[in-house]
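Supplementary Text 2. Reproducibility record for the structural model of the 77-residue chain.

All settings were left at their defaults, and a single model was retained for analysis rather than an ensemble. We include the record here because the model underlies the residue-level annotations in Supplementary Table 4.
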Amino acid sequence: MRILTAVSILALAFASQVAQAQAPLARDRAPQAPAEKAISPEESAAKIDAIRQKAEALERSRDEKLKRTTKSICIGC
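Retained model, structure tokens:
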């Protein structure tokens, strides 16, 4: 148990060092902002509706997965 704990602590420490070492490379590059264009209210509404429909479909699929999972676990509540 002690060996597993020591190995996991060392792995976490090493992973954090690697992440910190990679961070300055991302800061050196200037962020490239996309050119913004004016969006009409109709286009904006269409994009919002598309995003909403996608989110609702994702939520429905998650609900179905959850129902299937809980149905197989608990049947007589």
